Amino acid sequence: xxxxxxxxxxxxxxxxxxxxxxxxxxxxxxxxxxxxxxxxxxxxxxxxxxxxxxxxxxxxxxxxxxxxxxxxxxxxxxxxxxxxxxxxxxxxxxxxxxxxxxxxxxxxxxxxxxxxxxxxxxxxxxxxxxxxxxxxxxxxxxxxxxxxxxxxxxxxxxxxxxxxxxxxxxxxxxxxxxxxxxxxxxxxxxxxxxxxxxxxxxxxxxxxxxxxxxxxxxxxxxxxxxxxxxxxxxxxxxxxxxxxxxxxxxxxxxxxxxxxxxxxxxxxxxxxxxxxxxxxxxxxxxxxxxxxxxxxxxxxxxxxxxxxxxxxxxxxxxxxxxxxxxxxxxxxxxxxxxxxxxxxxxxxxxxxxxxxxxxxxxxxxxxxxxxxxxxxxxxxxxxxxxxxxxxxxxxxxxxxxxxxxxxxxxxxxxxxxxxxxxxxxxxxxxxxxxxxxxxxxxxxxxxxxxxxxxxxxxxxxxxxxxxxxxxxxxxxxxxxxxxxxxxxxxxxxxxxxxxxxxxxxxxxxxxxxxxx
Length: 516
Description:
Blueprint: H1 2-32, E1 46-51, E2 54-59, E3 64-70, E4 72-74, E5 83-87, E6 90-94, E7 100-101, E8 107-112, E9 122-131, E10 134-139, E11 144-150, E12 152-156, E13 159-167, E14 170-175, E15 180-186, E16 188-191, E17 206-212, E18 215-221, E19 227-233, E20 235-238, E21 249-254, E22 257-262, E23 265-272, E24 274-278, E25 283-288, E26 291-295, E27 301-307, E28 309-313, E29 316-321, E30 324-328, E31 341-345, E32 351-358, E33 361-368, E34 373-379, E35 381-386, E36 389-393, E37 399-403, E38 408-414, E39 416-419, E40 426-430, E41 435-439, E42 445-450, E43 453-457, E44 460-465, E45 468-473, E46 478-479, H2 484-490, E47 497-498, E48 501-505, E49 511-515
Antiparallel strand pairs: 1-2, 2-3, 4-5, 5-6, 6-7, 8-9, 9-10, 10-11, 12-13, 13-14, 14-15, 16-17, 17-18, 18-19, 20-21, 21-22, 22-23, 24-25, 25-26, 26-27, 28-29, 29-30, 31-32, 32-33, 33-34, 35-36, 36-37, 37-38, 39-40, 40-41, 41-42, 43-44, 44-45, 45-46, 47-48, 48-49
């Protein structure tokens, strides 16, 4: 009896484990349909050649791979020998051996990326194919990933790997895995333009809309196809700047009034004349009638809607009503500070920039993180650069460098002084002599040059002056032109010359090579 009971319990446990494993598998499989990787380019192997107004292909050694006999050449992935060769409207796909690819389809074409300012302006491993009057998708290996059942397929603007499909005059969304994210049932679909440094626009959701007798009405669908809001609003905007939070915040308008949703839940009623997200304070600016206030994204009123004017500057919020001016912190607490003074954070948490408005002029100073004055507001401009150094402009309009305690580190003698973006290198220009001094992170001059031209590359800079070329790393250390960092980065861009051919850049997206 006991053995039978133990046997039954064992069987139940096994069944339970199987059910749990099945649920986990189904969840993972469902999520995998919506997750995809984008191809990364590690080197440029092939380039478009133009000769006598005809196009061909050369490789990185300058060898002709495809003779220039075509009206247009598209190379979606410069690492792969897949070339779309156009003769007016006719297209054939060839490899480096001049073999025809994807020949079992009626027509295969690359997919242009919309609003992408780069020469890599195609989907790199996904193409459309045309058969029996309809479009579908194939991957780079020629495998069908979406059947030919659509009237059109195009890239959804800003979102690589995501496609806007049309069927029976309605639009839907599929991704590069062939997953139908949104069925074709809307009159229009756009990305909500949610962006992160790590994923780009991959985590964007979708603002969908249908046309009614009273104009378009908008709704919201997540990146995994989950409908949060029906298409019944006059407008919808996602708070896309709030990248620290995985929740979806949607500012909506209905019948001329604005409110806020957090995912599906309404957290601020649609009762305001306007509602705008302020990315500086990370709060919402509310307007009701002619009065203004601020609220958090969780719906809490931080500053009452009773002010005739409200403005977010630096780390504080400045509000006015009648004859009363108040300064608030981002939690809505009043701050005892001059109403004409503003405090701005820097990249270094120990230092802040202070400004003071006086007689229509703004003067700059430096404080510590506790608000203690380190340098009084006496400069026309101050900008933090690195360590404890600041660019400053004096009353004579000359630029120099000061330390956090106001000591002069570089003499005020330049007409322009700026930090090269992303580098610990300073560019100091004397407009009278047209000479440029370059300083490293230790504030030592590493180069003095006239008529200097700067090419700011990832990991280094290139300076050209009077026919001479100089290279420096991010800290201002001199580099040899054959340094690994330079040669490696050159693989990720079109070189100025390839053998007997030189680069011609007609537009930002249109680069080709011609014989010198």
